[in-house]
Amino acid sequence: MKSDRLYRLLETYPVVAPAVVATLIIIFGGIGVYLAEHNHPGANITNLGDAFWWAIVTITTVGYGEYFPLTLVGRLIGILVMLSGIGTAVMIVTIISERRLRSLESRLKPKADPHLSLIGAETKTDIKTKIDRIEKLTEEDFVNLITMLKSLRLTLLEESRNLSRCSRCGNAYFSRPKYCSNCGLNLSEISP
Q1: What is the 3-state secondary structure (H, E, C) of 26-95?
Q2: What is the value of pTM for the model shown?
Q3: pLDDT tens-digit series, residues 48-83
Q4: Which of the listed CATH numbers 1.10.1670.10, 1.10.260.40, 3.40.190.10, 1.10.287.70 matches domain 2-108?
Q5: What is the C-alpha separation between 59 and 80, in angstroms, rounded?
Q6: From CA 121, how far away is CA 114, in angstroms rounded?
Q7: pLDDT tens digit string along 11-26?
Q8: Is 172 strand, coil or helix?
Q9: How many CA atoms lie within 13 A of 59 on its CB side?
């Protein structure tokens, strides 16, 4: 149950994990370098505040140079903090970039048209096949293709909100023409 909440938290706020890791690195790196440096002669990291400041400056890769370790152990801790800082920064940038990319992809992805679900996969495949070899179609196959396309168009138009019909023959139109192409009725004189 707790792992579900943690997973949802990390999904909602993905930068939390790298921020926690960076905080732990600052705390343990600062304490470690303090323990390694504070008794060394000539050391400039002599209190815990200086050690935490050094860890923050090092993990952010700013590196002012005012505090630096002199001992071998302190320098090894410094290397770990530096590499961790680079890794954490890359992780945060990657997470932000990935979420931004997902957002852009979702906005650019075409919305599913509910009318297209009416078209069966076999009908789509059949139409595509006939169109791909249109130059080899017989007259009868060509007429069948036109009939399929008209039928498909009528099916889509019937589901459309902007559908208008001829009052005489019932022919459906997406946008209202001046004359019905089926019976010739003047549709502009008839109220919608």
Answers
A1: HHHHHHHHHHHHCCCCCCCCCCHHHHHHHHHHHHCCCCCCCCCCCCHHHHHHHHHHHHHHHHHHHHHHHH
A2: 0.53
A3: 999 999 999 999 888 788 888 999 999 999 999 999
A4: 1.10.287.70
A5: 9
A6: 15
A7: 788 888 888 999 999 9
A8: strand
A9: 22
